[in-house]
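Recall that a protein's primary structure is simply its ordered list of amino acids. Everything else, from secondary elements to tertiary packing, is in principle encoded there. The following example makes that idea concrete.
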Amino acid sequence: MSHTERKVEPLLMGAKKRFFTSSVVFALALVWAMPSFAVNHNTKYRHHRRARFRHVVWNPVLKGSRDSMMRQNEEIDRLQLPRIADNQQLLELERTQELVPIRETPALRISRVVKPDKRYARPWVTQFLADMSAAYYREFHTPLQVNSAVRTMEQQQKLRRHNRNAAPEMGDNASSHLAGITVDLARRGLTRAQHKWMEDYLKNLRDMRLIEVAEERRQKCFHVMVSDRYTEWRDATRAADKIAAE
C-alpha cells in the first residue's frame, strides 16, 4: 500500500461512520415524530368533537320564560295564597289541610331527597298528579317521580346559594313552589317515547291554561304549576266520560 493510500483510508472510514451515525439519528427522529403526530392529531380531533358537543342548541317545546313566572305569581295572587315563610307556617297549613299529602302509589313515587314535611301540595295539585301518573303508568308501566313540591321562603333562599337558576323567594317572578301549587317532575332517564308523551300531555293542559310548565335543563325536570281550575275541568271531563259510557 502506498503512502497516499494509507492517508486516504482513515478518511474514508470516518466518512462511513459519520454517514451511519446520521442515518441512525434520522431514523430515530422519524420514529419519535410518528406517535407525536398521532397524539396531536387525535387530540385535535377530540377537541373538535367536544367543541361541537358544547354548541348543541337547547330549544325545548315547553320553554320557560319570565312571562310564565309572572303568570304563576298572578295565579297565586288571584287565589290569595300566602308565600310560605318558614316551617312553622308550613306545618300550620298542613294541620288545617290547606296543604294535603302527596301519596305514593304504584304509578307515583317521590324522590328520597324530598323531606316528609315537604311532600305536600294544594288539593288540586294532588288531583293533577293522580291523573297524570295513572295515565303515564297505563302507557309505560313505570311510575312518575316527584322531585320537589312545596317549599318555604327560607328553603328557597338556601337553594339559590348553590343553584343559580332557582327563582327568587320574593318579587313578581318568585318561585311558585312557595304557595304549594307547583311540583317538579323528573325527566332524567326518560326514553324518547316517554319524554314525548310527557311533552304532549303537559302541552295540552298548558294550552287549556290549566297549568304553567317549563322543562328545566340543569335540574332535569318539568316544573309544573297547577291552577285550581284543574278541579272544575277534571269534574266536567269525568262527567262527560260517564255520560258517554252509558
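Residues 108 and 129 are 8 Å apart (CA to CA). Residues 35-41 have pLDDT under 50 and may be disordered.
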